[in-house]
């Protein structure tokens, strides 16, 4: 295949959309294609750190306010703001196309990132939304499905094709009328063996304010266990890299792929969100974990319950998070 110009555009709702695009970006580069990246916020900061030689373009932020309860009612109320952001990012993408003449757009859940007349793929593991039993969930689901079928030539799902896969009812069956490709789970990490250094590694991710709320909760609770060694990864790629020791807690805002892979191997237990990209990392590295879904995100609760019922990972609500119980789960050094 002749070299193509490819635009890859992950959503900036946490880091997961950007991190799971890493193997796709690497695959396109390995095939000799010219790759451009576009996103906003922390996702864009992560892409610039991970691929410093690639052109990175800034897109408008969706600027969704995250609730403490169910996500979908607040999302419905913010739909006008979301549609305006989609229109703005669409205009930015068209301007970029005028300048660079792309052959392909790969959009990870950015609904305005498509270019009429060329190939557009839409990446999402959540083609069926949880909470469709009420009108708000059904409305968001209808919009989601309509947009994918109308403006994108293919639906790419990062899961195994055979049900239930990793995402269960979220990713199965394919959307009727949409040409679908199951990619299998995507992870940027490397599987490795290493001596255990940390009893627990806390991997924070997701949007504010819940990321900061959970960090404060963790930092308070680790003080009760001075004999243990913990690592806290804040999930803040926009902050310059540092490592600081706070008692028995080693803290870093972010890690590159090699260091994060090593952290997974050096930790007896991973405590993390049940965001799908994090779950793909766990599945690939086969590390034991304890899940704490982000409050207000039904998808993460669905995934935590599914994997808990399958006996893979225990989990709890953030409000009920108890480090003592987690330590009982984690094997000793």
From TrEMBL:
InterPro entries with a match to the protein in the record: Glyco_trans_28_C
Domain Glycosyl transferase family 28 C-terminal: 260-321
Alphabetical keyword list: Transferase
Lineage summary: Bacteria, Pseudomonadati, Bacteroidota, Saprospiria, Saprospirales
Protein name (Swiss-Prot/TrEMBL): Glycosyl transferase
Pfam families: Glyco_tran_28_C (PF04101), Glyco_trans_1_3 (PF13528)
A GO molecular-function descriptor: hexosyltransferase activity
Taxonomy, superkingdom: Bacteria
Gene3D superfamilies found in the cross-reference section: Glycogen Phosphorylase B
